[in-house]
């Protein structure tokens, strides 16, 4: 009944893929872009990652992985440590809870779902950020980031989809 | 395809869901704890952050490289298209700078003569390090950048970051091989500034927007769009007279300043060690006798480049070796 060790090793390697993709998302997110205005509000790649994997392969992105990705993002981006992590964990719980709603037949609904989640995450981010700063902070960068994220979601989710496809084909080939 | 997967999930659900819920709650509490700890003991958290950034610096550098290459490529193509225009602009600028160079040379000689006459202590040599940006804030919460120079290169918290056009910000925390700078536009940035040419001082307050706010100006000060803003040197964090930006808008008592630094075009930052060292004579007596000539005569203000703006405090004057000078008080002899 026990699985061969190679299969188990492969399974644990697969488990590493989404957090590693998360690491890449964080690194791209903090890399100096140099495009006018974008430095203030790059797209929230980690938000897309958490949304996508919670819908399609929730077992591969446990809360601990989301926590680590969020923590690294907060640390490198200079944000208050724990704040972004809190939002990503909240998003994971929300999407996981409403997974049946978000697991849509058409991409349009999944995109709309992401728009909704991005809106909620933005609102939560602004509220928590303002609470942390002790005053209302500039809203524009949050809105810019939300719009960028929603616009780029089709492209990024397609890329994530390719990764999932490769993983599945590797698994089937075994 | 999806249906069987869901069934398997619901079959193994109870124990797994319970465990995940517990993990989620624990991590949620941990995150809240970290946020609170960051508020209570920011030094500890920032030190931890500096260590992590330091460890990640090589990876950050590697990740930034493709983007930097792409940026350089775009800039190269862009400059090919603008060769004619750029050449013309450079010629014009060259003409203007030639005129400025002769003025600066004359002022430098004049300045040196006055300094000698007044026995002004020579200014300390300014040490600086030029560092490349390897990471940006990237989020809507802060305006910070990470550069690839740390304590090993002499960078320390509190040092000033400048670029060719003006003040960028100051070093918030330094690791061994990297450091993090708080930009002028950040929510937590406060820079003591002055309106050049006017005796008006204020504080430039960042708020995460592109145009920081000029606050704490004395009542009755007239501010106009286009007025130049420089550091005032008060508080000792920034040296006086560094160019900061120009007033962009004045509306309903709110003055907004556009920094001269284009933060999105920044590649390198010069990190300057500035020390407001006390002079050899700790308590210079106020000069008596004839008052000093006004520093802000219209002609003088016009001819003075930003870097030579008057410091707020008079330079220490060596009074122990009195010599007959142009400005020596009469009762010193």
From TrEMBL, chain A:
Chief location: membrane
- TM stretches of this protein: 12-31, 107-129, 141-160
Q: Does the keyword Glycoprotein apply?
A: no
**Localization annotation:** Cell membrane
InterPro entries attached here?
Answer: Cell_shape_determining_MreD
> An example of a Gene Ontology BP annotation on this entry?
regulation of cell shape
Instruction: Provide this UniProt record's keywords sorted from A to Z.
Output: Cell membrane, Cell shape, Membrane, Transmembrane, Transmembrane helix
**Topology class, membrane:** Multi-pass membrane protein
Q: Which GO terms describe its cellular component?
A: plasma membrane
Write down the superkingdom of origin: Bacteria
Please report which protein family the annotation says this sequence is part of.
Belongs to the MreD family.
Query: What is the protein's name according to its record?
Result: Rod shape-determining protein MreD
